[in-house]
Amino acid sequence: IRLPSGTPTLWHRELAVAPPGCGTASSLGRSHDMLGFLWVSSLMTVTMQGDALLATMHVAHLSGGTLAVPPGLNSAVIEIGCSDRDTMDDEELDKHFPNSFLLSFEPLVDKYALLLAKGTKRFVGSKKDVAVPLGRHHQRGVVLPFAVSPAGGDINFTVSAVAGCSSIAKIHPQSKFKNTLRGWGLKCDEAFEKRIVPSITLEQALRLTGELPVLRLKIDAQGVDLQLVRSVPPAYFSRRVETVELEFAGDNCKDAPLYVGQASESEVVGYMASLGYTKG
User: Distance between CA 47 and CA 56 in Å, rounded?
Assistant: First the structure.
């Protein structure tokens, strides 16, 4: 999805229609006071909540209330949901966005750790016991261990046996998704465990990059992609974001998608058109 012609876009990938078997298709700043509500306490804490052990920790550096961006960069790209494959730091940043800052979100702590480990290798190679900049998975990128949700705050997160299928959304009990899967994909709707994860809203995520134009926003939020977009004031979203990639359920299986409440193709295309975007 992209803005009407005349708006510069460095790279654009077509928003595909979900396959007949009911699968999921993908491809389609402000001052400090505006961000202060993201953090309710300046104290570092470790707490217990039921059977969960929770920790507050320093995960990135800010400058004037937005993320500290390396000098010389004139734009941003944002990735919501990474897991440990097909990530923008590996697949797209250097090739398609050479002057952009990458902001990634990954709430599964093991996958977050793997992304940070890639950053360590990029900064120091095979050297051991050498410090690297906080939160950096790329010389031009920061990864945060948060989810992005419609309302923000701590959320209950279902971890799937297939990590990339994990979501804040519930699996649809009559999902037809398995009809299109083979091998590992058959475990996509199997819950592995429940976790409490911190989250921020999409508007807050956008504001973390200040006023840098977002050349591409990749949303892989497993069933809540359109909800995230809808949660942002339309005028602000259209002003900040040039190209969007998100997932949807094909219209042929909108009554039983993988996730409860997952938007259909018609819903996604219709809402994005109302914001001034066109399907590529």
Answer: 9
Task: Report how far residue 27's alpha carbon sits from residue 14's, in angstroms, rounded to the nearest whole number.
Answer: 6
Locate the domains of the chain by residue range: 24-274
Going by C-beta distance under 8 Å and a sequence separation of 6 or more, which residues neighbour residue 188?
Answer: 160, 161, 162, 165, 177, 178, 181, 258
CA 34 remoteness from chain centre: 21
Q: Is the pLDDT of residue 221 over 80?
A: yes
Question: 105: Cβ–Cβ under 8 A, 6 or more apart, which residues?
Answer: 78, 79, 80, 81, 82, 143, 144, 146, 147, 148, 205
Distances (CA, A) of 147 to 18, 81, 191, 196: 25, 8, 18, 10
**The pLDDT of residue 122 is above 50:** yes
> What is the model's pLDDT at position 60?
97
- The confidence band for 6, taking pLDDT boundaries of 50, 70 and 90, is very low
Q: Are 203 and 240 in contact (CB under 8 A)?
A: no
Which is more confidently placed, 183 or 211? Answer: 211
Q: Which ranges of 37-108 does DSSP label H, i.e. alpha helix?
A: 88-91, 93-96
pTM value is 0.82
Nearest to 75 by CA among 26, 10, 138: 10
Q: Quick check: 41 pLDDT over 50?
A: no
Output the six-digit token pair for 216: 């591409």
